[in-house]
């Protein structure tokens, strides 16, 4: 198995996202899965938004931490995601689900390399170019070209 990077390799900006995601994770509403997830996203303008998973007894009403963070950002007028950090208690850290990847693709900062980081509470982490985790994404550009 690929060796995870220890927390000591986090640069200050990454550590800032990690801490914000850990703090958001504490607010997780996850009575059904028991898995707390926190996310923090940095927008291209430098602002940071956070989210936690919010489960629902209907299950279908459940939303992941990453999508909560993106929806908070978009609802406040910030549309360009530059970086995503996801924190769980798991080893290895969990990557975002497919639905979250699609939502990030919708708001990926145009012309920039979007970075995605997964970490556990010990700060062991991996970092990826978003394109590496979600290649050839279906994006707004596909539909907008049709008009
Ligand atoms: Zn998800």
Could you walk me through the main structural features you see in this protein, from its secondary elements to its overall organization?
30% of the residues lie in helices and 20% in strands. The protein is of the alpha+beta class and 147 residues long. The protein has one domain: Cytidine Deaminase, domain 2, CATH 3.40.140.10. The chain has a five-stranded mixed sheet with strand order 2-1-3-4-5. It is globular, with a radius of gyration of 15 Å. The mean pLDDT is 95. Zinc ion binds next to helix 3.
Total separate domains: 1
Strand content: 15-25%
Give the N-to-C terminal Cα separation: 46 Å
CATH class: Alpha Beta
| CATH level-two architecture | 3-Layer(aba) Sandwich
Write the layout of secondary structure elements.
Blueprint: H1 12-25, E1 38-43, E2 48-52, H2 65-75, E3 81-88, H3 98-107, E4 115-120, E5 125-129, H4 130-133, H5 140-144
Parallel strand pairs: 3-4
Antiparallel strand pairs: 1-2, 1-3, 4-5
The structure holds zinc ion (ZN).
In short:
With 147 residues, the chain is α+β, with helices and mostly antiparallel strands. It contains five helices and five strands, in the order H-E-E-H-E-H-E-E-H-H. The radius of gyration is 15 Å and the shape is globular.
List keywords for this structure.
147 residues; Cytidine Deaminase, domain 2; alpha+beta
